[in-house]
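Reopening this one. Same input as before:
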Amino acid sequence: MQRKIRVLVGKPGLDGHDRGAKVVAAALRDAGMEVIYTGLHQTPAQVVEAALQEDVDVVALSILSGAHMTLFPEVLGMMRERGIGDRLLSGGGIIPAEDMETLAKMGVGRLFGPGASTQDIAKYIRDWFVAKHGAASLAAAPAPHAAEKPRPAATPKPRPAVAPKSSPAAAPKPRPAAAPKPGPAVAPKPRPAAAPKPTGAKASRAPAKRPARAGSGATRKRR
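Same output, byte for byte:
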C-alpha cells in the first residue's frame, strides 16, 4: 500500500529561531510528504510524545542553540524507550563536522548544516524510506510545478484624441450707466444791459463850468 512519508519537525530547547525549520517543513510538504511542526521551546519528551501520537516515519530536529550534543542523544534514547527507535532521527543546525560524526556513531541520521539544499534533505529522507519499506510503499512524488509561460504585455490601445471642449466666451454683462447726481441749481448772474452807442453826429461836449471863486467879482464891484 502506497502512502506518504510522515515527518515531524521539532524545535527542542530554548532556541527561538524557527525560520529555517519552517522553510524545511514547507519544502518537504512540497515534495509530497506530510509534515507536522511542533513549534518552539519543546522538551525532548514532548517531541517524542508527538512523534508517537502522530505515528511519523522521521523526526527532524532543528537546533541552533549549540545544545545538539545533549538534545539529539536524549531524544534518541527516549525514542528507543517508547518503541519507535526504528524511525529516522535527523535534523540540522550549527553543528561542527566532528560532532556530526559522533552523533552518527550513536545512531543519529544525517545532519545538515546552514546553507544545505532543501532538495538534498527531501532526497535523503525519500531514499531512507525506500531502503527501509521498499519503493512500492512510497506514494508518487507530485510533479514539479510547470513553469508558466510569460504572458506578452498587453499593448495599450491608442485612445482617440479628444478635442478639448471650448466653452463659449461669456459675454460681458452691460453695466447700468450711473445716473448723474443732481447738484444744486445755480442761478445765472444777470448781466448789465449795455448802453447803446450814439450813432450819427457826435454829441458836442459842453465845456465844463468852473466854479466861481468866492469874493472875486462882488468884491471888485464894490471897490
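So the earlier flakiness isn't reproducible anymore. For the record, Residues 146-150, 216-223 have pLDDT under 50 and may be disordered.
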